[in-house]
Design a protein that fits this description.
145 residues; alpha/beta
Length: 145
């Protein structure tokens, strides 16, 4: 992974897993900014999905990781922001494929779906996989936009 900054966001359901991911990023020397939430009190995931997506489109961060209970709502919300390609991944194959083929800029996960061990492997795969730059994938991304 090149020198990048990661935007992190979660709701209350993803808070504990986000804390584990922060420990992993610290250990790897990867810069990040936490856009909330900051505790396990009930909150609304769209607030944090939008904050992370905005940080990426504004150039404050290069990629993002979003976590809620299932990863579904938070990824749907992020994908409403122009320029965001958020991928919901619960396995390393999907994380690798979405980076290689879709140049996804946000990884979404469900804390109630994956445990911390697998989640960290998914994050590692997502952050360390480069976009393939294959013309067919570039063309498909243009069609998405």
């Amino acid at each position: 992974m090149k020198n990048e900054s990661i935007a992190l966001g979660s709701d209350h359901g993803g808070y504990a897993l986000k804390q584990e991911i922060k420990k992993y990023l610290d250990a790897q020397g990867i810069a990040y900014k936490d856009y909330g939430c900051y505790d396990e009190k009930s909150c609304d995931y769209p607030v944090y999905a939008k904050a992370v997506a905005k940080a990426i489109v504004d150039g404050e961060c290069d990629k993002g990781v979003l976590i809620c209970g299932t990863g579904i709502g938070i990824s749907i919300t992020a994908n409403k922001v122009k320029g965001i390609r958020a991928a919901l991944c619960h396995d390393t194959f999907s994380a690798q494929a979405t980076r290689e083929h879709n140049d996804a800029n946000i990884l979404a996960m469900g804390a109630r779906v994956v445990g911390p061990g697998l989640a960290l492997k998914i994050v590692e795969t997502f952050l360390n996989t480069e976009f393939s730059q294959d013309e067919r994938h570039i063309n498909r991304i243009r069609q998405m936009e």
